[in-house]
Design a protein that fits this description.
- Helix 2 packs antiparallel against helix 6.
- The protein is α+β, with helices and mostly antiparallel strands.
- It folds into 4 domains: 63 residues; 142 residues, f41 fragment of flagellin, N-terminal domain; 117 residues, no CATH class; 108 residues, Immunoglobulin-like (Sandwich), CATH 2.60.40.
- Helices cover 41% and strands 22% of the residues.
- The protein has a 4-stranded antiparallel beta sheet. A 4-stranded antiparallel beta sheet has the order 11-12-6-14.
- The relative contact order is 0.16.
- The longest helix is centred in the N-terminal third of the chain and has 54 residues.
- Flagellin is the subunit protein which polymerizes to form the filaments of bacterial flagella.
- It is found in: Secreted; Bacterial flagellum.
- Keywords: Bacterial flagellum, Cell projection, Cilium, Flagellum, Secreted.
Amino acid sequence: MSSILTNTSAMVALQTLNSINDNLTKTQAEISTGKTIESAKDNAAIWAISKTMESDVAGFQAISDSLALGESTITVARSATETVTDLLTQIKGKVVAAQEQNVDREKIQTDIEALTGQVTSIVEAAQFNGLNLLKGTEDVNILSSLDRQGNGVVNASNITVNRQDLSTSAGVNGVGTGSSLSGQIVNADVAEPDITNDANEAIVTLGSGSWTAGQTASITVAGQTVTYTAATGGEDQDAMAAGLSTALQALDLDGIVVDGSTAGTVSISSTRAFEEVSISTATDANTNQITDLNGASGLTDTSGDIAQRAEQIDFTTAATPQEGNSYQASVGGTAYFYTAGKGESFADVARGLKTAVDSAALEGVTTQVSIDSTTGQASLKIDNNSDTDLSIALAAADGGTASGGLFGLDSIDVTTNESANAALGNIETLINTSIDSAAALGSAQGRIETQSSFIGKLTDSLKSGIGTMVDANMEEASTRLQALQVQQQLGVQSLSIANQAPQSILSLFR
C-alpha cells in the first residue's frame, strides 16, 4: 500500500542517516581532540577514573618540584659540611704543630682563629631559599609521595632530614629541677669534695722475722717485676723491704714513687692521672710471706690496682639523654655545662663537658673521656696537677637549649702546654662530628635522588595509563571516518530515493 501521508522508507533512511551523522560527529571530535572519552557523558566510569589519576599526576609533579628544592637545600648543606671538615682538618694540623714547644704558638693560634672564623662563616651562609640545615636541631620534612588507599583516602609521605647543627654555640643551661635526671650521673668515683694532686698509695708489708738465705720476694708494678733474694746468712724484713724498694726505684717508672724508709714496708705511690697501676706480690712460699697489701681501694692481700689520680664522672647506661637536658660539672666553684642535642648519647655529653672544662684553661687541670668497651659506659675524668685543691660538684637539669655540634671550636687555645694537649683531643671530636654530619646529609641526599627518580617514572606510568583509557586510536579513527563519510553519502542517496517514492502516485491520477 502506498501512502502520501506516511513514507516509511524515508523515515528509515532518515534514521540511518542521523545515526551515521552522529557517529561521524563523534569520530571527528575524537580526531580533533585526540581523546575517545572527552567528557563524563562519553563514559562516566572511565572519565571519573582518568580525572582522579590526572589529579594524582598533578600532585606528583608538585612533589617532584618539592624534591628538587629539598635536594638543592641538602646539596648546599652537604657541600658546606665537607668544606668545614677540610677546615677542621687544617686546624688539627695547626694543633699538632703546636705540640712542639719550640714553635711560635702565638702565630699558630692566630691561624687557628682565622680558620675558626671561616668555619663559622660557612655554617652561617649554608642556606638555600632561607633554609639552613647546619643550624638548630629541628627536623625538616620534605614531601616525597602521595599514597592513595583503596577507599580513596590520600595520605602525604615525607622524607625526614635531620638537621646537623655545626654551630659553635654553647647553648643554654637547663632551668628545670632535673629530678628525673638524678640517676643519670652515677659519679661513683667522685669520692672527695676536692680534686687534688695527691698520689694514690699501696703499701706492701713483709712478714716479721728473718728470711733465710735464698728466700725471695717479688713485686710486680705496671707489668714490671722485681725480685729480691735474701743474702747468705739471712736478712730481716727491713732489709728485704729495702732491697725491693731499691730494685723498684731502679725501674724509674713514670708517675711512680717508691719509698722503703718505713721498717718492713714498701710504699708505692702513683700520680698517673688517667691510668690505674696494677700491682701484685709473690714469695717463694717459705715461712716468711708478704702478709699484706693495702693503702688503696681495690687491693687484696696480694694483688690489685692503684687507682688513677683523676676523679671520674660516670654516666648511666640505662638511659639516654634527651634534647635540652643539661649536665654540669663545677670545678673550683665555677660551673661548666653541656646541653644535649637531639639523638645524642652520654658519650657526646662527656665529650661536651670535657670541652667546656678545657675551654676554661684551668691551671694544672686536664680531662679525658673514656668509653668502656664492654658496657659502653661513658666517663669523664678530671685531674688536677696544680698545688691548689679544687672543689668538684655535679648537677643535672632539663629545659635547656642544645649546645652546637662544634661547641668549643672557638675556644681552642694552643698557647700553653696544657691547652695544646687538650686541643688535640677536642679537635678530633669536632672532626668526627663534622664527618658524621656530612655522611648523614649525603645519605639523605641519596634517598631524595632515588625518590625523585621513582616519582618521575611513576608520573610517566600514570600518564601512560590515562592515555590508554581516554586517548583515541588515531589509525582506527581515520579508517572509521572514511567509512562513515561513504555511509553518509549512501545515506543521503537512500533518503533521496525514498523521498521520490510518493511522486509515483501521481501517475495513478493521470
